[in-house]
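Ticket reopened. Same input as before:
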Amino acid sequence: MAKTAFIGLGVMGYPMAGHLKTGGHEVTVYNRTTAKAERWAAEHGGSYAPTPREAAQGAEFVFVCVGNDDDLRAVVLGDDGAFAGMSTGAVLVDHTTASAEVARELAEVGGQCGVEVIDAPVSGGQAGAENGALTVMCGGEAATFDKAAPVIDCFAKACILMGPAGAGQLTKMVNQICIAGLLQGLSEGMNFGQKAGLDMEKVIEVISKGAAQSWQMDNRASTMCAGKFDFGFAVDWMRKDLGIALAEAKGNGARLPVTALVDQFYAQVQARGGQRWDTSSLIQLLAED
Ligand SMILES: NC(=O)c1ccc[n+]([C@@H]2O[C@H](COP(=O)([O-])OP(=O)(O)OC[C@H]3O[C@@H](n4cnc5c(N)ncnc54)[C@H](OP(=O)(O)O)[C@@H]3O)[C@@H](O)[C@H]2O)c1
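Engineering reply: fixed in the latest deploy. New output:
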């Protein structure tokens, strides 16, 4: 059993840290808003620390799950950051969805202080985090991955090393690019069916058995038709992720015409007050036109 720290107890991090504890590991948490760290420690019986540095002291594995590149730098680098508390040979596993650039930067700075780093963004959403069934896409050294994977398994149903530092984040970009176009197609299909006067529950029942089936169809088509979006993966997060993918594509020359368009549709959803709505809310733009 390992001595671990978990930094960032948001929608994802809170239950992920809980799975580490129920998996038998020692867990010290840090959260910027201390009340959440206190609540977590009371619920799970672990301890909490006032800074990322103090949480990371003596830990073999330090997990991070914060918002974006800047948040990640804020909790890892600097005098009170995780690196300042970590010992030589300790491993930082970052579950934030961030750029490949910041993943490489942390791997390099970590290397200078003797700390190993894995970028490990996740897919599976809040339900995946709560059920311990996330998909984890990793970038880093094979020997580091081999050490970290059995601990990550506490909250993962799949955990795969994709390549060197940044490869996990690049894989997550592929994931988000695939979802963006798919959700727009699903929105158009559902909206078309409603306008055609079809019984949408029956439509979903039959087409989800065929080639149109997807996770989004299985989990979101009915709620899209019912206009329910107050759950799931927020539009604000999706815009962050698509921004990261579009910036990466500028560098590698990949064309992302549909992704760029869907990103603009999400900007419209935000303008309508849907910042925290689920990403399936794209259908709203069609329904109201
Ligand atoms: N939600 C999902 O379904 C989902 C799915 C896959 C991937 N992700 C990714 O996972 C990451 C976390 O998502 P989430 O839904 O858990 O977000 P969240 O609920 O908003 O939580 C964000 C966490 O990061 C902390 N944080 C943010 N900025 C910080 C800073 N500058 N310094 C210190 N702490 C900071 C927050 O602390 P406070 O409590 O003090 O605000 C909070 O603990 C994001 O990169 C997201 O894109 C999310």
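The beta strands are 3-7, 26-30, 47-48, 61-64, 91-94, 116-119, 122-123, 134-139, 156-163. The pocket of NAP is lined by residues 8-13, 31-33, 36, 65-67, 71, 74-75, 96-97, 122-123, 125-126, 233, 237 (CB under 6 Å). Please confirm and we'll close it.
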